[in-house]
Design brief:
InterPro entries: Di-copper_centre_dom_sf, Tyrosinase/Hemocyanin, Tyrosinase_Cu-bd. By secondary structure, the protein is mainly alpha-helical. The chain folds into two domains: about 70 residues, no CATH class; about 150 residues, no CATH class. It is about 40% helix and about 5% strand. A hairpin with a 5-residue loop joins strand 1 and strand 2.
């Protein structure tokens, strides 16, 4: 049996351990795109280019993501001097998020509050919006991002840029999903919704939260988004 891998809280890493994280990711990102361990190849398993292997909305959601993270971790271990690398985790149930994201001057990113929309109908708006964001200092941009994540985690609701209420409270959802009475409803939003619809109105059966729900939400908190005809969850408007 191999050595047990100890995955540590990101905020509790030593300076040396943080340097190892940066060095390992830098190595993968510099590999040719067609290399089996390249960041491009492994990121592609999750999304684009097709085929897309990521499982959402079904019982494979938790297990697929665990296997995916192991694949990424093993690739990171291939970096010189990183043979004992273990993927750190971000404890999203803690209140402190300061310093987790840093945008040095000149760094290009599509993280919130920047817009990454590049379609023909959004291109000009994105350029104008990102120019507005760039009027802030890098520290102010980081503060906007961290505040958005903090809001999604700790506030029950928040006001979007239109002044309308949007639901949040994702840290509580991470805790509440552990109350699910079976793996199926715990594992994915489709099964949780079916269970909640079936038991709606029965006071003896509380509604359930799937682990997939807050997982999806944190993707969105870091990116900022709106869904046409379903709601605008962005506090920072795309003008």
């Amino acid at each position: 049996m191999g050595k047990v891998r100890m995955r540590k809280d990101l905020e509790h890493l030593t300076v040396k351990e943080r340097d190892t994280v940066v060095r390992a990711f830098d190595y993968l990102q510099k590999l040719p795109p067609d290399h089996l361990n390249s960041f491009f190849t492994i990121a592609g398993y999750y999304g684009l280019p097709q085929p897309q292997y990521c499982n959402h909305g079904n019982i494979l959601f938790p297990t697929w993501h665990r296997a995916y993270m192991l694949r990424l971790e093993n690739a990171l271990r291939s970096a010189p001097g990183c043979g004992d690398f273990s993927m750190p985790y971000w404890n999203e149930t803690e209140n402190s998020v300061e310093g987790l994201y840093f945008k040095p001057e000149g760094y290009e990113t599509v993280r919130y509050p920047y817009s990454g929309l590049v379609g023909p109908e959004f291109k000009d708006k994105t350029i104008a919006h990102n120019n507005d964001v760039n009027e802030n200092t890098p520290e102010q941009v980081t503060q906007i991002l961290n505040e958005n994540i903090r809001t999604w985690l700790t506030a029950e609701t928040f006001k979007n840029h239109e002044g309308k209420d949007a639901l949040a409270g994702e840290a509580d959802k991470f805790r509440d999903c552990l109350k699910a009475d079976n793996y199926m409803v715990f594992s994915n939003t489709t099964s949780a919704k079916a269970s909640n619809d079936k038991n709606k109105g029965d006071p003896a059966i509380p509604s359930v939260i799937a682990i997939e729900s807050p997982h999806n939400a944190m993707h969105l908190a870091i990116g900022g988004f709106d869904i046409p005809k379903q709601g605008d969850y962005d506090k920072y408007a795309l003008r």
